[in-house]
Design a protein that fits this description.
Helix content: 55-70%
Order of helices and strands: HHH
Largest sheet: none
Distance between the termini: 73 Å
Radius of gyration: 21 Å
Structural class: mainly alpha
Shape: rod-shaped
Strand content: under 5%
Amino acid sequence: MSVTKIRRTYVVAIVSMLALLAGGYAWYWNFAPSARVGRACGGMLPVDDTLAMSGKHARLGGQAGLKLSSWH
C-alpha cells in the first residue's frame, strides 16, 4: 500500500467519525426534552422544574416517577 492511500484512508475515517459525532450532537440537542423545553419557554421558566411537573426526566426523556395526590 502506498503512503497516499493510507493517508486517504485515515482522512476518510476521521471525517466520517466527525460527521457521526456532529450528527449525534445535533440530534441530541434537537430531541432532548431539556433542550426542547428550554427553547419553548425561552428561559422564562426553570427547565428542571418544568420537566419534573410534566413527568419527564431532564436528560433521557423517561418518566421521573412523579405522583400527585388527587387533592392537589
